[in-house]
Design a protein that fits this description.
Number of strands of chain A: 2
Order of helices and strands of chain B: HHEEEEHHHHHHHHHHHHHHHHHH
Mean pLDDT of chain B: 90
Shape of chain A: globular
Radius of gyration of chain A: 21 Å
Structural class of chain A: mainly alpha
Largest interface: A-B, 30 and 33 residues
Helix content of chain B: over 70%
Order of helices and strands of chain A: HHEEHHHHHHHHHHHHHHHHH
Strand order of the largest sheet of chain B: 1-2
Strand content of chain B: under 5%
Number of strands of chain B: 4
Radius of gyration of chain B: 22 Å
Mean pLDDT of chain A: 91
Helix content of chain A: over 70%
Distance between the termini of chain A: 22 Å
Largest sheet of chain A: 2 strands, antiparallel
Oligomer: heterodimer
Low-confidence stretches of chain A: none
Structural class of chain B: mainly alpha
Chain lengths: 484, 500
Amino acid sequence: MATDDFIALLPLLVTALSSLIVLLLAAFHRDHALVAVVTSLGLTVAFLTLPVAAGVAPRQVTPLLIMDAYALFYAGLILVASLAVTILSYGYLEKQEGQREEFYALLLFATLGAMTLGAASHFASFFLGLELLSVSLYVLIAYVRTDGRPLEAGIKYLILSGTSSAFLLFGMALIYFQSGTMEFARTATLLAGSVEFPSTFLVGLVMIMTGVGFKLALVPFHMWAPDVYQGAPAPVTAFVATVSKGAMVALLLRYFVEIAAFRSEILWWAIAGIATLSMFTGNLLALLQSNIKRLLAYSSIAHLGYLLVAFLAAGPLAVEAVTFYLTAYFVTTLGAFGVVGVLSKPGNEAEAMDDYRSLFWTRPWVAGVFTIMLLSLAGIPLTAGFVGKFYVFAAGVDSSLWVLLVLLVVNSVIGLFYYLRVIVVMAADGRRDVRPGENAQAPQVSYADSLVLAALSGCLFWLGLYPAPVIRLVQAIQKGLIGS
Amino acid sequence: MILVWLIGLLLATGPVAWLLDRRGSQWPRWIALGALAIDLILALILWTERDAHLSISSQGVWIADLSAPWIPRFGITLHLALDGLSLLLVLLTIFLGITAVVASWTEIRERAGFFYFNLLWVLGGVLGVFLAMDLFLFFVFWEVMLVPMYFLISVWGHEHRVYAAVKFFLFTQAGSLLMLIAILGLTFIHAQQTGVVTFDYQQLLGTTMDQTVALWLMLGFFAAFAVKLPAVPFHAWLPDAHTEAPTGGSVILAGLLLKTGAYGLIRFAVPLFPAAAQAFAPVAMALGVVGILYGALLAFAQTDLKRLVAYSSVSHLGFVLLGIFSWNTIALEGAVMQMLAHGITTGALFILVGALQERLGTRDMRRMGGLWATLPRFGAITLVFAIASLGLPGSGNFIGEFLVLLGSYRVNVLMTLFAALGLVAAVIYSLALIQRTFHGSAGESWTAPDLSTRYLVTLGAMIAVQVWLGLYPQPVLDAAGQTLQNLRGFGEAIAMISRG
């Protein structure tokens, strides 16, 4: 390996190194604050190495990884999200009992796995990244062991994730059997001439799609999502909802673009069906929820459905739309779960509607942040979510997916209904006499947490009001991906 | 720059009003009033100097025009422009904004800061809608009106406020998203033909396309505007929202938000798709006539005072729809006049009804009656606006309805005939309102203070404007006429091309 290879891998290497330092610290010098600071520093340094790595990009590092603008963009997204989760976790874990230091090591491992997925160009690195991410998540989800529910959620995730990995492996084996290679690029070259995929290959693809569907909680593979979202500690839920899903989408998009997967009509229709089902199931079931975490879980199922609509548009605009939408979704989801985490008390997650009643009048800032996050999820202008949705619409119109777009509109309206319901509860004046600051039970929001929420709100408005710089970036990586 | 100031001032003072609430609830009121007063001065300057600033381009005659890049990827610009039509509606917005602030002065005691924040943002959004000449920007402002209005209804409204607020939001949002698809469809068709991706209104004007495609896209726009207008059968949100909203909210809803629908039709839906609009015109006109009669009928059947006024809006806006789709200069001028006059009249009626509810604690007309004896000023002023509402000569409503009928007569005699029946129906429900509330035997012995000076000044100003519109409408018609002629001439030219 040449020096440039190492430079290209710097973000991954720095993250790996930080996780080792954290492990050593946990072994020899337990100190929650110190570990959290080291983790944050590690992630920040890894983020700062991105421009350095970009200097040598695009670069194929071994057959396994390709460090191009696309991989680096997703790495950046993942690192920032992990940083936000780290800071939120610190505030959250401070309130919990037990040993906390290993949490950060696992978080770093998971981040490393997610970044690997974004850069994978080979089934081996795909699987490696995926398992690194998943295995860390099993433990992270069940990290708070004082309560039964995180354990339940952890086990559920373990079993279903294991099953989905089995599907993935089988799919990969079939594709390998057909094409004789596990490299994405070589698969693409072999298939370049054929109009329709060979049937074994197609079966393999469908198997992989099944495995990925589990990870993305797409209907009908979504059963785990509400339970895991509900059971896991709020910051981990944020991580599962953003980093884990985002990395998976990044991989899927790269693979599908590379092999031009939508030449297969069957596959297109299958994914269109999954998208439709995910939108409707997610939104309709979210209507029935009275638990905020479950509501957000179903809403995220629906959002992945929206994302698939952009995905199905196929073509340059689709890559841009998916990437931008995902960026907006990251900001918004982190913010929403951040608020849930901030409001949680030890052994009592802020998940019942009642925990949010009159929040506007007792804690106006937190309620304000949650409101704009919900409005962004609903796709109301001035927020990041709107520009994301606009991008999806644009991609859909460009490819004339009229039916899917109308379904998306119907779903947006259903979605709006339950987001509004939460806002209504927050604005309700059930306790007119409560004045700001008088709610003594509510935990104090720490300085770091406020900073994260403020930063996320800032990003939300930035993406909503002046998205031009991010759009330029997204456009550039799209050119790199489609061009290569 | 003055256009940015108009909008920016309201959007910027909103948060200030909210923050200064801590100093006492007087602060947000005065801040809101001050911001609107400055806006009014700016708008009046534009009005008096409108002839000096005219710049004539191929697509219109603009008094002020401003454009800056925003999202170059999609050719989206921050393009604001003002012509005669926009200016009239901007003046209406600011004027009704001031009356809404005054009407909420004593009604809103709880969380006044947040209330005025929302009020200012709704008004800022409405101004943006009237000024935006980029379809993306237009859509953004279109939605910016929505969220604060939702809060106004759901926090400070009456008994069923949450139901009404959610219904309002869902109806409008469904329409809006269909419009978004239509906007994108239009843009992409334009891009395919010219290779230029743009959302600029002036560039998109004159895009030629297949007749069926044009019809679908036009319907996308129509969906959003028909919900806002509202045209029967998309009106179901209106009675609830208007009834449950606080007074200030009702004034803005009826006086301004409904006008954005009409404005959208005049500015966007018809000129962008002239041929499709022409094909669709009989349906739209029929919806207008149905709205006129249906609204009037239901208004008469109400026992809730606010609901009565709300349904009368459905009836009045039916005339606007009829006028717009008649699409000749007289009918269009009538429609614009009707928009302005209805804004003032209905705004005033909502203020009166709101003040009455504040005093009596009920809107139920069955419990009222004989109130003239206790509240003579109330009775007299309500009578003035009820008469204006029924379209007596001398009021702006008369000019509006008369011109609409005159214009639509040239297009469709039968529909004009039925629409004219609406004038009779308006007499019935307007006088019924006065009769049941202020005359007859007293239902209960109410004792309440009459209108205060603050109200008298506000309502007096509204009467003055109303009478001015009724007696000397020419300046208004001139200001709007230029724009309307352009839009119309433009539409006609395109229709010719696509036909021939």
